[in-house]
Each structure stands twice: as structure tokens, then as C-alpha cells.
Amino acid sequence: MSMNPDKRVVITGMGIVSSVGIGVNSFWNSLVEGRSGISEITQFDASDLRCRIAGEVNDFNIEDYIGPKEAKKLDKFCHYAYAAAHEAIGASGLDSDTTDPDRIAVLVGSGIGGISTLENQARILRERGPRKSSPLMVPMLIADMASGYISINYGFRGPNLCVVTACASGAHSIGEAMWLIRRGDADAVVTGGAEACLSRLGVNGFCAMRALSERNDDPTHASRPFDAERDGFVPSEGAGVLVLESLENARRRNADIHAEIIGYGSSGDAHHITAPDPQGDGASRAIEAALRQAEIPAEQIDYINAHGTSTPLNDKVETMAIKRTLGSKIPVSSTKSMTGHTLGAAGGLESTAAIMTLKNGVLPPTINYQNPDPECDLDYVPNNAREASPETTMNISLGFGGHNAVLIFRKMR
User: Fold this and answer.
1) pTM (predicted TM-score)
2) Residues carrying an active site annotation
């Protein structure tokens, strides 16, 4: 089939696993209420680490979705991805009876993949020797297994891919999924991101970089994007998965349509392996690219779900990029203030928040905003949700390596 850049792409399903709730409604209600999901780490002994707090997923049981024997073959990031996909696919009604399975793609990214599996297997090799190593180690740790497992279980035989761009993985996945549909390679795509980074090895790696908050005695106030006293991000786990479809396919199935995705911009900083471009150039170019593709002026963006990590550099530079390309009047919030930073899953969770903002007419807040920073001087929807009537929302995701992704969603017309 030939490329059709004007083909309309819509969202028909959403699924969430997060530290503030499992399921889209639970997740959204927590955001609107300004509820933090950050607490002391319980999954492993973090007593000697600089950061001892995280956004853990509570009350999650993979056996609600698959059998115990099957669950043991998968790393936790795949558990989260599959649970979120199960919700999204179920809500959309997508199946191989109403859509050709050869034209249903799966594109779920992960920034790190199965780091807990890697850590556990390294310990077994060291302590018990090579004969005790698991033959499942490789398929459990590779980042593409979330896409692979969803495809296998649902029998979706279209393009099957994984995007790995650090903390921009989920957003890049959604943007590239849109293009799979526009260029005629798929009629529907299960897409988003998943992450399970809370292992001793994973958290300590970020500690060694001094990237994490050390506000260990006050977990719920530790993630404070754009606040003058922010001291790093709080690591978190989860998954956010969307079902994207061509408008024609969704209408043919009489599917419920939540929103339309109208723009996607991507760029590289070409600056530093971890630090953003100090002028926000890469992020600015990704925003401009998304606006060009959406064919709308900056003034039509009504709300921005920012990357907003709560690190000193990111929040300042992202603010600069937004002001340069979009001006100073658009409300901006960081839902990471509540969820923590889910790394490669962030684009999936935060795109869902941007879509729910359109559906419900409520802007989620940036909680813990107490001390204004003169270098972060936008309207961050501080501390309390705000009623509004947005028609168009934007999600920004930025990743180590200088990876930038921007998505634009619009109410269905």
C-alpha cells in the first residue's frame, strides 16, 4: 500500500500499570486528586543507597492475567506490559475477527528491559556456577520481549518492533506506531512503553550518577518538578499502552474513539550522553516538528504534559524549549510529581494522561510545587487540578543520549 501522510490515526484503547493505580480510571483519579505513589523501597534492601525511595507498583498480580508457569518465563517489565496491553486491547475491542491479524502491529518500547533478571542471573553465575544459569535469561532480559509476548499471545502478526531511546522510548514508540498506520503497513498498533527498573543494580546505577532525589525522609514530596528545591528524579515502574488505529478501521468496527493523534516530532541533541542541550535546542526542534506535522500553530496547544523529571537541568532546559517554541501562556504540568519517573514507560503513561485531559476537561497538577524557581517561570498547574476545555494537548519526552519525542493529541472531530 502507498504512503498516505494524511491518513487519520485515532486512539481506541488505553491501559495502565503505575505506582498511583492499576487501570486507566484508577491512574487518572489519583492524578486529579494529586496523590503521590512514592514510598520507601520494599523490593530489595536499599538501606545503604543514596536514594531509598521509589514508585513501586502495589497490589499487582500477574496471575490475574496469565498462569504462574508462564509468568516465571517473563521479567517483571513484561508482566507490566502485558497487563497494560490486556486492558487497552480489551477496552478497544480489537481482535483478529474484526481486523486482519497480519495488519495488527505491536510496538512496545522499554528503556532498560529485564535488569532484575540480569542482576539475579549474574548473582547465580557468581555464587552457584554456570550450570545453574537459566536458559530463559536472554529472552527474559531483552527489551523487545514485551512486544514479542503481546504479539504471540494475541496472534497479532503485523510488524513487531521495539524502540529503545531511554526515557523517550514510550513516546517514540507511539509516534512510530502512528507512522506504521499512515504509511499503510498496519491498520492497528498496540504501542507504548514498559519498565521495571527497581533492582538494587538499577537504582544504584542512577545513584552513582547523582541523578536521583535523596529526600528519603519525605518520599511523597521528593518528586517536585520545576520547584527550586528539586534534587533529582524518583525512579518508578509501570507500563502505559495504547491501541492506535486508522480512523477507517476504527469506524468500520464501531470502536469508541478517545482522541486523535495528529503530530509527532523527533530530534537528537547531538550534545552529551546524559545532559540535555543547555539551550533546549533538541527539544525545541522536536516540538516544532510535531507542530508542522499536525499543521497547527503553537497557539492551538491548550495543555502540555511535560517530561518534568524534577532534575535541576531537565526542568530548566525544558522550560526554555517550551517558551521558545510555544510561548509562556500554555498550562504545563508534570505528572511525574505523582508517579515518579517510569523511564521508558513514561511516554505511555503520560500520553494516556494527555488523552484523559482531553476527555475529562481537567488539567492534572504538578504537586509539591512550593518554591518558585526564577528559571522555571511557566504555569505549572501547581498542586491542584484545574478544570479547563482543552481541544489539543501535547506530551514531551526526553531521553539520555539526546533523544527527544513530542506527541500531539486532539479531541476527535
Assistant:
1) 0.98
2) 167, 307, 341
